[in-house]
Amino acid sequence: IITLFLRFLLKDAIHHPPLNHIFTTTFISFFGLNHIIVRLSYLIPFWFFLILLFKQIKDFFDEKTSISFILCIATFPFLLIASVTPDHSIWSSFIFTYLLFYIFLKKNIDYRLCVLIISIGILFRITVFSGFLLIAATFIGDFINKKFLLKEKIKFLILNQKIILIFLIFFPLLFISALGTPAFEGVESVNPISYFLKAIKSKVIFYSLIKQIPAWYYLFIIPLFFARRKIEILCFFIFNLIIYFSVNPVLWGNAKYVLEYGVPFFLLGHLIFVKYLFDKKKLFLISMINVMIIFLNIYDVYKFPGSRISADLVYDRGYGEVLKNKE
């Protein structure tokens, strides 16, 4: 509440949600301002994120497979670099990844939990709201597959689980941001579909992904087209592209946006691939592939000129381009 009040006093209002740098301000308040403290304020949440992912997947894999897969995520070059960079784009990446893993792995979805995660996430990063489309698409898919009766399910969510109260957390933020933010000119000034089509023609979407995603992850996009709930996942991917390419064209392809609209889907593709091999009892093959990916990830990060490159340069020019120029 105090942070939200200060945002208004500083005229930052809702365009940057009240909790976007809550860990940074808290760590600095207790331990002072220096590079290590600022980096730890994002690195520690990254560790918690990895722990939550491990808890999520350990019910579907054995311990060795779960650990090796989490280590792949922990060493994913751009995500690892972002985890020690004070920019709130990483919150969307965390939440989108968690939700995508959740809807892929779980047969029975706890919709109240999903809405709660997204609603709280919006207090960290406003673009997290797009997660509602993923949940809505999943809800429609479950209804089509006759997993519940629509009237009874809606009644249960509203009356029993009080889902409307959760919406009150995010609605004021979402409503005000729809009128315009520093990056987004507002729904009255922007035609998102027109912008999206221009982005496709310019090939900036393709090149932005190529610049940020290591080459050994490219093939993991293929499993998305054969996954359970593939329609919901692909709709979410396209919707995110429309959102992130509705911003000022100067910002198109910005690396920190790729962290949100690109990275979670490649990580999901990796998970789907591992799940397929695990169901086929190919445990040794999984171990070999994951160990190889961990090695390649670490080597890529090792090559990256970390301390001599500013975060702004990484985000503006891209992880891949900075690495290429170093070589």
Summed up:
The protein has 327 residues and is mainly α. Helices cover 68% and strands 0% of the residues.
Key attributes of the depicted protein:
18 helices; globular; 327 residues; single chain; mainly alpha
Please give a structural write-up.
- With 327 residues, the chain is an all-alpha fold.
- 68% of the residues lie in helices and 0% in strands.
- Helix 6 packs parallel to helix 8.
- The radius of gyration is 20 Å and the shape is globular.
Tell me the total number of β-strands: 0
Provide the gyration radius in Å: 20 Å
Q: Output mean pLDDT.
A: 81
Structural class designation: mainly alpha
Q: What is the N-to-C order of secondary-structure elements (H for helix, E for strand)?
A: HHHHHHHHHHHHHHHHHH
Biggest sheet overview: none
